[in-house]
Amino acid sequence: MTRTEPAGTPLGDQFHLYDTTLRDGAQREGISYSVADKLAVARLLDELGVGYIEGGWPGAMPKDTEFFARAAEGELALRHAVLVAFGSTRRAGVRAEEDSQVRALLDSQAPVVTLVAKSDVRHIERALRVDVAEACAMVEDTVSFLVGEGRRVFLDAEHFFDGYAYDPDTALRVLDAAGSGGADVVVLCDTNGGQLPLGIAETVREVAQRTGLRLGIHCQDDTGCAVGNSIAAVQAGATHVQCTANGYGERAGNADLFAVTGNLVAKLGMEVLPEGGAAELTRVSHALAEIANLAPDTHQAYVGSSAFAHKAGLHASAIKVDPLLYNHIDPALVGNDMRVLVTEMAGKASLELKGRELGLDLAAQPEALSSAVKKVKSMEAQGWSFEAADASLELLLLAETGKAPVEPPFTLESYRVVLDHRAGGEVGSEATVKVHVGGQRVIATAEGNGPVHALDAALRKALSPHLSWLDSVELSDYKVRILAGHPGTDAVTRVLVESSDGEREWTTVGVHANIVEASWLALCDALVHKSLRQ
Amino acid sequence: MTRTEPAGTPLGDQFHLYDTTLRDGAQREGISYSVADKLAVARLLDELGVGYIEGGWPGAMPKDTEFFARAAEGELALRHAVLVAFGSTRRAGVRAEEDSQVRALLDSQAPVVTLVAKSDVRHIERALRVDVAEACAMVEDTVSFLVGEGRRVFLDAEHFFDGYAYDPDTALRVLDAAGSGGADVVVLCDTNGGQLPLGIAETVREVAQRTGLRLGIHCQDDTGCAVGNSIAAVQAGATHVQCTANGYGERAGNADLFAVTGNLVAKLGMEVLPEGGAAELTRVSHALAEIANLAPDTHQAYVGSSAFAHKAGLHASAIKVDPLLYNHIDPALVGNDMRVLVTEMAGKASLELKGRELGLDLAAQPEALSSAVKKVKSMEAQGWSFEAADASLELLLLAETGKAPVEPPFTLESYRVVLDHRAGGEVGSEATVKVHVGGQRVIATAEGNGPVHALDAALRKALSPHLSWLDSVELSDYKVRILAGHPGTDAVTRVLVESSDGEREWTTVGVHANIVEASWLALCDALVHKSLRQ
């Protein structure tokens, strides 16, 4: 079994930054993570440096069981974070060691287990249908069994705030049962999300005094206060805070990991991330939105692309002189940028920076830089986006600076894709490409599972006898976004293609009203980019 | 001139619900209101029953000048709200009555004027470039001049919280100057949005004690706490709260009017809206998003379409018994609805609840219910997702309960789609469908911008002579999700199609390795569902 305490933050185990994107975040309408997605999410959270990653409910959900199995086989290799399995206390009237759900938590091999338990007497009596004594025994037995098996245990006290307001004694008995069983932290959950900050702070202070237990906080955003509630709880004494990436979660969502962390670091001065972690907040937020296949929230606190964007007006010149008078923090602290809208300054500066990243000195070519800014802006107005497509941006900058290859590895004459759903119900896709490569005109036809697959197959068939490196290139991801503001099937489609040659990954973009043409543009850029690196 | 106090709320002038969507909200990146938009926004806010509507900055912005002129001519006819003009104090060294910007505020004929003034000594000295005495004189002169002209005046103390923390004496002198001039309310503005709830509450309490003035609050969302900060300020004694619709505003935005109002009404029991107003929150929020040309935030507190949507299979059986144990308020209070999502966690209870929403009594048919659960689970394992596709789920449940239509409106024999990128660079899409409808075999061919558009066009061409209702049906949204875990272009594709007939909207889903076939499945379900409602 791996370590039970997170590594690398100055606060160590004194403060827990706990992420439940993979379990509670996945409750958001529209999110459906595959096991591969879950592994990718966990890796990004670990790069950021969160202390604990709740991976799911092994035993209850087949995908979660597989996720923990693959993690146990070493697929995750977490550097900072400790993996947590979520589950329930034993059923009523059964010994903890005989409860298959509890055994599945052990089998997951996660070093930490978070158990959920009801702490509102109404839920205990009406939903669980046991008395308070048995509810407490279920908590204490399960915690002490898991602790005896060498696990650290945290207890999520579900519906705690409502329960405490209605019947404080029962709510506290449940917490005490967890403490007696050996739980390290009892987490006060605002499961229905109905609380406000001042009330949360008061209750946390009171409960800390009455129980002497280490307290955590878990907030939902039903009053629009999940972040404020979480921070108020920390200020009142909670030392464990549960969040989800971008606030994903059921109903209005959970407390947003990025806003909570931004506040802890920048406002309360708490070193809850390893060195350099805060500057990764913006990047990780956007990457996690991509994996969830949701558009990043442009107006998200700290990490949104507009979070430090100022409409040029009254104070534009003052902002330039003294930006910190107009920003609540230095945006670089969280890996974000200030933008002054309606000027080209920001565009040039960031393109120049980008060029430097790609090894191009655009500052030395002011005209090329200007024309590249103009080109990028006009393409972005048509729906292109280079934020995630470095490889396509690099090709564009090379073309603008006159450094594009004189000979691209191939040129297209034409393609044709035929899709049919035949009378017998069979569905087929076939593509023919006519390309010029190595001084020859080549025609190739191939079938595929769908139009883009067929097109990719035909292109490879035509090119691979001429391009020795082609076989090493794989399409590792393919994403489609129908751009909002263009309703109906005649919308503009943006396709992102991620390619890999086993050593390097690169992403290209294509935009067109026709999804197949958009895909074609991204596929071609991917191969041209690879050929430049040969 | 019209009245200076809002009409119709039980709290009357004791509490101000103040909206600045038309001024501060319009600072949001991407929002650009026409004068007609501004009038429509003001009418909706008035229907909701807010007390004050800040309409813009007459004199500074031509659109705002026109808006106030048309309002003065009677185009608005506000029933509840009072119109407010926003502007600045006089320039340094000029008499208030001789300052053209101040005169424009009078000319607007708005009965209330909100003046913005700097209250942070650093802004006074570095941006305004006057000394504190002159800054205070600018405030007092301008307020007393406008009050003398029969206006009520509120003062927005810009950057108040930062200024008070840095130099409390200067910040308080500015407030006192406003009070001496005759301002009714001094509004403490967290202009840079860097505050947290407990700190806001402490400062508001302290300032109320030290000044004895009536305090207002204006929060920006840069820490993700604008709503929590606003509510904390009210709990600490502020009796005037400034918000924007859906939190629109510069950077991360402002405090969301709907979440703040929901909290004031449902959590603090304050009657800040006229009778029936709270039940309009959801409708007005969505209508204001439409006018701003922004997609409503599905996960917005109180008013989002997911705000009361439950996914957890765990909870569904309990929710059925006692919905209020799982919702922080009755959704009807804010004009919203509870929804139960059908997901991979779907159990019988949640499917039964869903059936009830759709008017199907599945409890009476336990075998049909069992087989529907099995079918949903097996389809979800292949990538189908019904949580956003009620219409497809309804068709599935109807089929399982034997209530599907004996005759679907049409049957497909075959389709063929041809996409080509010709040698000249031209890209074309053409589809041919062979369908059976109204006892006939119909063949139709159409072109489109892309494969799905062409297929939709061909299908409509084939069917519309036979199905009279077809022309009313529009595709209002089309979403594509490449399911992760199946990398590369041979992935499984899930398509969601939202259709509208001008009265009703419904969503259908299709899943297939071939994106065109997936789209076809969703398109067909959309039409079959419509035909059932005929």
TrEMBL record, chains A, B:
Protein family (similarity comment): Belongs to the alpha-IPM synthase/homocitrate synthase family.
Gene Ontology molecular function terms on file? (R)-citramalate synthase activity; 2-isopropylmalate synthase activity
Q: Which residues form the Pyruvate carboxyltransferase domain?
A: 15-280
What UniProt keywords are attached to this protein's entry?
Amino-acid biosynthesis, Branched-chain amino acid biosynthesis, Isoleucine biosynthesis, Transferase
Q: What is its EC number?
A: 2.3.3.21
Catalyzed reaction equations: pyruvate + acetyl-CoA + H2O = (3R)-citramalate + CoA + H(+)
GO BP annotations, alphabetical order = isoleucine biosynthetic process; L-leucine biosynthetic process
Statement: the UniProt record of this protein carries the keyword Transferase: yes
Please name the pathway. Answer: Amino-acid biosynthesis; L-isoleucine biosynthesis; 2-oxobutanoate from pyruvate: step 1/3
Species of provenance: Saccharomonospora marina XMU15
Query: What protein is this chain from?
Result: Citramalate synthase
Report the superkingdom from the record: Bacteria
